[in-house]
Design brief:
Layout (H helix, E strand, L loop, with lengths): L4 E4 L4 E2 H9 L3 H10 E5 L2 E3 L4 E2 L4 E6 L14 E4 L3 E6 L16 H11 L7 E2 L8 E7 L2 H12 L4 E9 L6 E5 L2 E2 L6 E2 L7 E9 L3 E8 L6 H8 L22 E9 L6 E5 L4 H9 L1
Parallel strand pairs: 10-17
Antiparallel strand pairs: 1-6, 2-5, 3-4, 3-6, 7-8, 8-10, 9-10, 11-16, 11-17, 12-15, 13-14, 15-16, 17-18
Organism: Alkalicella caledoniensis
GO molecular function, one term: catalytic activity, acting on RNA
EC number: 5.4.99.-
């Protein structure tokens, strides 16, 4: 297991000060290090408040213990390293536990997978997919990497592209949907008082009563694609919240097929794609 934080002290100082200079950690993260971290200074275990001398080698390990039950759930792992893991999520499963549903999520499966490898990394989703949306979702293995990737997401440096089957044919075959979304419980809606929400779209193929559409999020509002498609008169097939159930597919026809970002440590450009799930493929065959 590699340390979450590792550095050489540049001067006589406190560990907290060095961490803030080198990693820009929050006060909350420092409290977590004090409570759960194992701090080694020149290979000797010390307290997080131990004073540093210039040249000291500091390594900090944090025991990551997610508050959930490990479960043997099949995982389609697209990519993994010591910092990140990319999962191809099937439809009809949550990314992580919520208050009323603590089991049978991708995160529960990741905890089981981690434990079978006798490893100790955390499970921190960078972004989320709705239960019924299939496709690529990114997790960080430490809180520090989670913080870095969260900042990348806010700066729009994580690109997420989707395939969707929408009802009807689009008047414009390519364009931008720029409609603010009001974040209210359950069913959100387009509203002038809402937050900025921008979705790019391009019609890939037209059918008699449906369209296969490629979409790219420029913002990340909850249910953004679903709300925007409804707003332009082409609601998502199978979306029971913003449209209606479909006899052609048992969930909403939305798949996150491409994910790209700069690696937080190596700075390498990472791009991953996934094929549509079997139920999505079968839907396209019968249109």
């Amino acid at each position: 297991m590699k340390p979450q934080y590792s550095f050489i002290a540049n001067e006589n100082s406190a560990i907290k000060d060095e961490l803030q200079k080198k990693y820009n950690i929050s006060r909350r993260e420092y409290r977590r290090i004090k409570a759960h971290g194992q701090v080694y200074i020149n290979t000797q275990l010390q307290k997080a408040t131990y004073p540093l001398t210039k040249g000291d080698k500091v390594e900090i390990y944090i025991v990551e213990e997610p508050n959930m039950e490990p479960q043997d759930i099949p995982l389609d792992i697209i990519y993994e390293d010591e910092y990140l893991i990319v999962i191809n999520k099937p439809g009809n499963i949550l990314v992580h536990p919520v208050h009323e549903e603590r089991t049978h999520t991708i995160a529960n499966g990741l905890l089981y997978y981690r434990n079978t490898k006798n490893e100790n990394w955390g499970i921190h989703p960078i972004h989320r997919l709705d239960r019924e949306t299939s496709g690529l979702v990114l997790f960080a293995k430490t809180s520090y990497i989670h913080k870095m990737m969260g900042e990348s997401l806010e700066k729009k440096n994580i690109n997420r592209e989707y395939l969707a089957v929408a009802e009807g044919n689009f008047f414009k075959k390519q364009g931008e949907i720029n409609l603010p979304i009001l974040d209210i419980p359950v069913a959100k809606r387009v509203d002038p008082e809402g937050k900025e929400a921008i979705t790019l779209y391009k019609v890939v193929k037209e059918y008699k009563k449906y369209s296969l559409v490629k979409l790219k999020l420029l913002t990340g509002r909850t249910h953004q694609i679903r709300i925007h498609l409804k707003a332009v008169g082409n609601p998502l097939v199978g979306d029971t919240l913003y449209n209606r159930a479909s006899k052609l597919i048992s969930r909403q026809a939305l798949h996150a097929f491409r994910l790209s970002f700069d690696h937080p440590i190596t700075k390498e450009k990472m791009t991953y794609t996934s094929k549509v799930s079997k139920d999505f493929y079968n839907l396209l065959r019968v249109l």
